[in-house]
Amino acid sequence: MTEVVIVAARRSPVAPRGGALSRLDLAGLAAPVVQAVLQDAGLDAARVDDIVLGNALGAGGNPARLVGLAAGLPDHVSGLSIDRQCCSGLDAVVLAARSIRAGDCDLVLAGGVESYSRSPIRAHRPLDPGGQPVPYDRPAFVADPARDPDPLVAAAHLAQSDGWLRSAQEDHAMASHKKALMAETAGHLAGELVPLAGLARDSFARALDPVLLRRLKPLAGTAGHALTAATVAVEADAAALLLLASRSRAEALGLPVLAVQVGAVQSGGRPEDPALVPRQAIADLLARLGWTARSVARVELMEAFAVQALACLKDMDLPPEAVNAGGGALARGHPIGASGAILLVRLVHELQRLSAGDRGLAAIAAVGGLATAVALRRP
């Protein structure tokens, strides 16, 4: 079977909605990242076979084609855009890897891009002539409304039903911010970031004050198990891209090999409990590869909610020090269609500080009861 390798991986900083990146459209966010990836690899853009991008907020058109042409890819590089909500950026990489394994492509750019700040305002067309459009925030992901809770409501229910206290969620959020700041201070993020609009760091990370956290008003849930602005990832803007190649083409072109993509699992679970589906995806992927949880040196786990991360890690036996070593989405933000790709870019760069053969996992959930997990190995 064709071995798929990652030869370059970069991302933009992540900025909250309305922040430093708010005036950039999708091309403005992602095209510089594409160019940085190609420069890192030392690859002529004409050699790229395809670009696959995740995007979830209904930007319209084909963002992958838009970004590819804006980045200077030749006209023959077509571009494919996918939407599986939060899984989109990671799924784009899975699709790219499959196309390489199938022999259809040798070099594919893959990742995700999202602008909460520039996303369209949504409304349903009126059913009757002269009627008024009906605004809506998100589409339905399950036909039965009873099985399609708002993600915030579902997370609050999880906190209540499984007994995750507000204080435990706040402790997790503080640890995420602390790890992000430590990674930034140590220079561990510099190699993956592409500065945009004068921003060269993830602007949301900060030292959280536990006294201040206790004063925050609940966003959802009961008082003892409530979710707050500190324990829910902020809406954000960002882009992340990776360059994937067949091992043979990478060697023929003398491209650097940063990681080997050794497997992926895309899972479905109960739509009512989307936060828990990554547990199954991770377990299935470990079993498929014959890995133990303790054998994984780095894990990038999505933190859309603190309670989600806590619930996914419970009884999984993953090494605590391996999880989100450079902080998670609670310290960065959640640019929906780009978040999964950001996890993988982070994982690639985390593995560069470890030894040959070390293993890594990235996992993310999506509304509708979906999850994707991807496994990498440092060569």
From TrEMBL:
<dbReference type="InterPro" id="IPR002155">
    <property type="entry name" value="Thiolase"/>
</dbReference>
<keyword id="KW-0012">Acyltransferase</keyword>
<dbReference type="InterPro" id="IPR020617">
    <property type="entry name" value="Thiolase_C"/>
</dbReference>
<comment type="similarity">
    <text>Belongs to the thiolase-like superfamily. Thiolase family.</text>
</comment>
<protein>
    <submittedName>
        <fullName>Acetyl-CoA C-acyltransferase</fullName>
        <ecNumber>2.3.1.16</ecNumber>
    </submittedName>
</protein>
<dbReference type="InterPro" id="IPR020613">
    <property type="entry name" value="Thiolase_CS"/>
</dbReference>
<dbReference type="InterPro" id="IPR016039">
    <property type="entry name" value="Thiolase-like"/>
</dbReference>
<dbReference type="Pfam" id="PF00108">
    <property type="entry name" value="Thiolase_N"/>
</dbReference>
<dbReference type="Pfam" id="PF02803">
    <property type="entry name" value="Thiolase_C"/>
</dbReference>
<dbReference type="InterPro" id="IPR020616">
    <property type="entry name" value="Thiolase_N"/>
</dbReference>
<dbReference type="GO" id="GO:0003988">
    <property type="term" value="F:acetyl-CoA C-acyltransferase activity"/>
</dbReference>
<keyword id="KW-0808">Transferase</keyword>
